[in-house]
Amino acid sequence: xxxxxxFWGMLIKMYYAPGExxxxxxxxxxxxxxxxxxxxxxxxxxxxxxxxxxxxxxxxIEIHREDLLADWKLCxxxxxxxxxxxxx
Length: 88
Known about the structure:
This protein has 88 residues and is α+β, with helices and mostly antiparallel strands. The protein contains one helix and five strands. It has one helix spanning 51-76; strands at 3-7, 10-13, 25-30, 33-38, 44-47. A five-stranded antiparallel sheet has the order 1-2-3-4-5.
């Protein structure tokens, strides 16, 4: 699973394989926490993440939603996603 961004100690990843299950989502790792975030809504679909990190990821998704959806399309075609600028 390639790393598409990293900020504030969080690793943001996306699987790339044709037919990856919907809805479009990213995987976030932070310390011992792991969660899957829905790209369209910013909600956690699975896993757990501290409140502060959840809010940071949701803000980043809001800023980069179009880029994330473009990466999702690449992944659906079996292509590696592009890197996305971290939250500053």
